[in-house]
TrEMBL record:
Entry protein name: TerD domain-containing protein
Domain of life, per lineage: Bacteria
Start and end residues of each TerD domain: 2-185
CDD domains (alphabetical): TerD_like (cd06974)
Pfam families, per the entry: TerD
InterPro entries: Stress/Tellurium_Resist, Tellurite_resistance_TerA, TerD
Length: 414
């Protein structure tokens, strides 16, 4: 991977003619005081006349895909929490409309002026270009090293020169919003076009009776967070259920795995208790835990085929809320092809006094066997927050590093 500096231009396709699809990742961290920043990456598709190709040529949080399908925004993190890229744009260089000569990559602090936020307060912001087909890291531009200010920046441009695609690291600060930037490329539209819809989390409804819970809350986007219901009574048992659709391998998969091969998907969690005790609960290594003593978490069974209707369940002793600091719920493919789109997994958290909380594994990273699904954290020793993560890793060790758990890992089996 080449680390770029402001003003540097690099080739993308001339020396790598096989490169057709790239991923542009934007990442940043919360501030030192835990302050959240909602950064938004936008891709402006510009023609030879220097004009934006209409509203459809602006790919951003209110228009996730260009008309030709070549440019697509796939992630929108509104806080900066979590490891890896917070927002990603996929670009198919071969299918970009012939009239488009460059794709301008802009980043804005959403509603930065009213929040009194700018890039000078954002930590560790970067733009990275990867080969979207094999995951190879190509170029990285560390924005934080250029002391950028303002609420908006033009991070770089992917442009066509002598029929080859190149990238220029620009790092140009601006105090103008996305609407003003679009005007500079001759696109005039109403401000309503740029108003971001609020994060949609279904409100919890009152159950029909005290003993039956008919409601469900789905955390739809990475970073969405909700607290377990807080009552005067103890939390009671929290059930974390993993279920997936076991599909028979077909076509190419069957030739690799053998006809009828199944995927063994395992549920587990990393835990950190208030006394500093850290560990994992999972079938691998026969670490099934204990519900009545530390770590107050237990895995009830190991479904190796996906055929068990109830799936796999982690049980968390919510009555011991003061003992917990944080938990990271994850799933990993122990056996079978590392193709999450074939799994169609869903994790449901059931609580005694509130709605079910559902997190779907709706983003897929083929080839990576480990998925961090949800982060649970202690809230004032009264309840726990649940945040959707859905990030993919090569294994336990890589996931551990990303979430700074600090454990030592060795190979295991079951």
């Amino acid at each position: 991977m080449v680390v770029l500096v402001k003003g540097q231009k690099v080739d993308l396709t001339k020396t790598n003619p096989a490169l057709t699809k790239i991923k542009v990742g934007l990442g940043w961290d919360t501030g030192s005081n835990g302050r959240h920043f909602d950064l938004d990456v936008s891709a402006l598709m510009v023609n030879e006349a220097g004009e934006l190709a209409g509203k459809e040529g602006l790919v951003f949080y209110n228009n996730l895909k260009s008309v030709d399908g070549a440019v697509q925004l796939t992630k929108d993190n509104r806080t900066g929490e979590g490891a890896g890229d917070d927002e990603e744009i996929l670009i198919d260089l071969k299918t970009i409309s012939s009239g488009i000569k460059k794709v301008v990559l802009a980043i804005h602090v959403y509603d930065g002026e009213s929040k009194k936020q700018d890039f000078g307060q954002v930590a560790n912001a970067y733009v990275q270009i990867d080969n979207a087909e094999n995951g190879q890291q190509l170029h990285r531009y560390e924005l934080g090293k250029d002391s950028l200010t303002g609420t908006g920046i033009i991070a770089g441009e992917i442009y066509l020169h002598n029929r080859e695609w190149k990238f220029a690291a620009i790092g140009q600060s601006s105090s103008d919003g996305l609407a003003e930037l679009c005007k500079s490329y001759h696109l005039q539209t109403s401000l309503d076009f740029f108003q971001k819809a609020p994060t949609q989390v279904e409100p919890a409804k009152q159950p029909a009776t005290a003993s039956i819970n008919l409601t469900k809350v789905e955390l739809k986007k990475t970073g969405d967070k909700i607290n377990l219901n807080k009552t005067n009574a103890p939390l009671g048992e929290i059930l974390v259920n993993l279920n997936w659709n076991q599909k028979t391998a077909k076509g190419f998969l069957s030739s690799v795995l053998g006809a009828g091969s199944s995927v063994d998907l395992d549920l587990g969690c990393l835990f950190e208790l208030e006394d500093g005790y850290k560990g994992t609960v999972q079938a691998l290594g026969n670490s099934f835990g204990n519900l009545s003593s530390e770590p107050y978490i237990a895995l009830d069974q190991d479904d190796r085929t996906g055929a068990i209707k109830g799936g796999e369940n982690l049980r968390i002793n919510g009555n011991k809320i003061t003992k917990f600091k944080r938990l990271l719920v994850y799933a990993f493919i122990y056996e079978g092809a590392a193709n999450w789109s074939e799994v169609d997994g869903v994790v449901t958290m059931k609580q005694q006094s509130g709605p079910d909380i559902e997190v779907r594994l709706d983003e897929h990273r083929k080839g990576k066997r480990m998925c961090a699904i949800a982060l649970l954290e202690n809230v004032n020793n009264e309840t726990m927050s649940v945040k959707k993560v859905v990030e993919y890793f090569n294994g336990h060790k890589e996931m551990d590093r990303a979430f700074k758990w600090g454990m030592n890992w060795s190979a295991g089996s079951k």
